[in-house]
Specification:
The protein is α+β, with helices and mostly antiparallel strands. It is built from 16 helices and twelve strands.
């Protein structure tokens, strides 16, 4: 008893020595506030755009709670953090400096993913810089948890759609439901279903992973169990979404399309989502009960603050230099190159077409659409083109789609060599199916000035390089649509560029 009282008295003396008051550490607190304010001003464009995404896209509504939740998790670990001496860490610069560059590149190339990733990499890195290495290790998960603020994951939608369609078709066949599948269309005797983007389950997938990560951190001790639960949180929503799609079609089959055919299945989806989360937490509780936890009363002694004014001012200088570079890039006016390349096909025009691809272009500068007569005197070749000057629009954007997903479904794709202006491009040939079972082939390519690309990534990287060099050239999306049995080798020589 006397030993415990002596320990408490010793800790009280240490706490009294460790002074965290504002008056004694003005330079540390002022430096921290200044650095965070510079982060806000530097990343303001990224912050404002990410808030618009969080608000406008229900997939990423959880983004509003990530940073406040992370700060609360840090608050819960405050005793552990203060048990380490708070001192600026130069090691954090290995994340801070590349994040500045990534953000500037994102602004120059108008790549929101780069801006968002840099924004929410800088914030935890700056916190790491201010609290030091040892304190940052003690709050490693809350700092990494901030990365869930980045709205990424929509790229998984096509893959999740395909998985949902494959799994539901397999279950329907096992239960003896007659069906015909064409791409993402599943047709039963009572009607036709489309595994649309809303049915991909991407919202379930992302939310489950976020909640699973948080639960594993708060409730599980064993590293193996944490990894196992994270794997379950990724796999469980995918399997559950397959069952959901299967259940919707099965209910429609049993009730002759009376139920689960209209908006009902969306309502069922939300109830099912809640059920999935409850089941996921139930699995977590099973792991939690069997996870051996050693409860020990830990007493933390506070170490105080050791401020490095020179190191903080060095970081502030770097941030101000990044501000200046960002300002120069963000406020310059780049003239668009006068050489605007447009394409045409050396075939006679016709007045109607046997199919309508209906590509989706987001605010293009110019666009055109042409249809051509085939050998059987019918309109069976279509050509679409959209131009983007990069001022009020963007060539490489998720908002630009080569076909309308409500009218066409991807059946298959493969690579095929096609000649464009005496240049062989290895283009992806997409086989699309309409609701009535019509199959067409579609190819597309991107052009920046006179350079042609078969990859969005390569086109965007070229645009970023041009922007950093102070140039801007007109970007073009060209799309060619032909019947299923058409040979693209016949078309390549007929595509020409008009300068």
């Amino acid at each position: 008893m006397e030993t415990r009282d002596a320990l408490k008295n010793e800790l009280k003396e240490q706490v009294s020595v460790s002074d965290f008051s504002f008056t004694s550490n003005k330079s540390y607190y002022f430096s921290s506030i200044l650095i965070l304010l510079l982060w806000v001003t530097f990343c303001w464009e990224g912050i404002s755009s990410v808030v618009q995404v969080w608000y406008g896209n229900e997939i990423f509504n959880h983004g509003f709670f990530i940073v406040p939740g992370s700060l609360y998790l840090i608050y819960l670990k405050r005793n552990v953090v203060l048990s380490h001496k708070l001192t600026p860490s130069p090691l954090a610069l290995i994340v801070i400096v590349p994040s500045f560059f990534l953000y500037i590149v994102g602004v120059a190339g108008d790549v929101q993913l780069f801006m968002h990733l840099a924004t929410f990499s800088l914030l935890p890195a700056l916190i790491w810089f201010m609290v030091g290495d040892k304190a940052a290790v003690s709050i490693l998960f809350p700092l990494c948890f901030m990365l869930f603020s980045v709205p990424v994951g929509e790229q998984l939608i096509p893959y999740l759609q395909e998985i949902a369609a494959d799994g539901s078709v397999m279950l329907l066949q096992l239960t003896g439901v007659p069906l015909f599948r064409s791409g993402l269309y599943i047709e039963i005797p009572q009607g036709r279903f489309l595994v649309a983007e809303a049915c991909s389950g991407v919202s379930f997938f992302i939310a489950s992973f976020v909640i699973g990560s948080l639960y594993a951190y708060l409730n599980l001790v064993s590293t193996k169990r944490k990894v196992l639960f994270l794997f379950v949180s990724l796999l469980f929503p995918v399997i559950a979404n397959i069952v959901r799609v299967y259940g919707i079609i099965l209910i429609a089959y049993w009730t002759d399309m009376e139920y689960a055919a209209g908006a009902d299945h969306l309502i069922y989806g939300w109830f099912f989502f809640a059920f999935v989360i409850v089941c996921l937490l139930g699995i977590g509780e099973l792991l939690h009960k069997t996870d051996k936890r050693e409860l020990k009363e830990k007493i933390y002694c506070k170490k105080g603050i050791e401020h490095s004014f020179l190191l903080c001012m060095s970081l502030v200088t770097v941030m101000l230099m990044a501000h200046t570079w960002l300002y120069l890039i963000d406020n310059r006016t780049l003239p668009v190159s006068a050489q605007q390349s447009t394409f045409s096909i050396a075939l006679p025009l016709c007045e109607a077409t046997s199919f309508d691809l209906s590509p989706v272009f987001n605010n293009p500068t110019n666009r055109k659409e042409e249809h051509f007569v085939g050998t059987n005197n019918s309109c069976n070749i279509s050509f679409y083109e959209a131009q983007f000057d990069g001022v009020n629009n963007e060539l490489v954007s998720e908002l630009n789609r080569i076909y309308n997903p409500e009218l066409w479904s991807l059946v298959n794709d493969r690579n095929e060599e096609i000649w464009i202006e005496s240049i062989a491009l290895n283009l992806r040939v997409n086989y699309l199916s309409s609701p009535n079972g019509q199959i067409i082939k579609v190819v597309h390519w991107l052009s920046v000035g006179e350079r042609h690309f078969n990859s969005k990534v390569n086109a965007k990287l070229y645009e970023i390089r041009q922007a950093l060099e102070g140039n801007r050239e007109m970007g073009t999306i060209a799309i060619v649509v032909v019947p299923q049995n058409y040979d693209f080798s016949e078309l390549g020589s007929k595509i020409k560029s008009l300068k």
